[in-house]
Amino acid sequence: MAEPAPQPIQAERSQEQTSGNAYLWLTRGIAVLLLFAAGMKAWQLATVPSLGEGLLHARWFNIVVVEFEIVFACWLLMGLLPKLTRWATIALFTTFAGVSLYKAVSGEASCGCFGAVTVNPWWTMGLGVVVVGLVVLHRHNQRVSCPWFDLAELDKRRLAWTVVVWLVMSIPTTFAMTSVKTNDLSELGTVFMGADGKETILLEPEKWKKGVFPLLPYIEPPEVREQLKTGTWTVVLYHHDCPKCQKVIEELAAKGEPNVVCVEVPPSIAKRTCFARLNEQVNWFVTTPNIIKLEN
Asked: Residue 202: CB partners within 8 Å, gap ≥ 6?
């Protein structure tokens, strides 16, 4: 008759099982977090034009990030190649924390990790550090000694389900993100061809949808666009040679109106220094002064 296992071995196995269960729930939680972040970014990409300059704000780059987050979340849920996945998770969230730190130091109001939901970059950097710490502390009880990448270790049924689930979520998401109109001038007003052969737009702010400021992508310089994306602002569209515009601007300054941004509507005969201006991709026409109140 076989002798019963010594008590220390049973305790060790019990501890390993508890650790394995904790790691399993940790990876599932990370997968849900990634799916939530991907969904929020996808919603923003599918509903509004991309704003901001540089790689981190580029539409194609953020679409790639969304797709990667979806496939990585599916991979985590299926528990494929746990040792490789564990280190990949550490590397991924270390990168996320680094990007959040860069945005925090740059003074950006939101990390952009959750789309249009404003989250302070310092908070998401802290979240990334916490996730990395938890993954480092928890190890999978059965596979910690497995090779980095061994095809024999792959559960082909789980791999097939990973691909199927990813395609089910990815195809409609990609279609939605790529079908948004990023430069639809008709949303701004009446579009026609000017006498000089250049596309011309008659701005009609009274027809703009509530909650949307479609003129934002055309305001220069880029730092002004970044400021207008959050907070409460008073935007004054003005002509450089409009006495009434000058009077309105002076009245706002005299009243101490906070967060006033004056946006010059080109063409301007003289190249003058101004608060901000509309770019010259098209000819702009609008009755000035035109005061627009923005909130987030």
From this structure: 189, 190, 191, 192, 285, 286
**For residues 242 and 33, what is the distance between their CA atoms, to the nearest angstrom?**
52
User: How many Å apart are CA 31 and CA 107, to the nearest integer?
Assistant: 29
**Token pair for 89:** 């998770």
Task: Name the helix (H) or strand (E) containing 284.
Answer: strand 283-285
Distance CA 243, CA 149 (A): 72
Residue 75: Cβ within 10 Å count: 23
Which two structure tokens, joined as six digits, stand for 232? 């409460």
Token pair of 110 as six digits: 């939101």
Tell me the three state secondary structure of residue 58.
coil
* Cα 8 from Cα 221, distance rounded (Å): 68
Q: Which pair of structure tokens corresponds to residue 48? A: 């509004």
Tabulate helix, strand, coil % of the chain (nearest 5).
55, 10, 35
Would you give per-residue pLDDT tens digits along the chain (296 residues)? 445 555 555 544 544 455 556 778 888 899 999 999 999 998 888 776 554 556 777 778 888 999 999 999 988 888 877 888 888 999 999 999 999 999 888 877 788 888 878 889 999 999 999 999 999 887 644 444 444 445 455 667 888 888 888 888 888 888 888 775 555 677 777 777 766 667 778 888 877 777 778 888 888 888 888 888 888 888 888 888 788 888 888 888 888 888 888 888 875 544 444 578 888 777 888 888 888 888 87
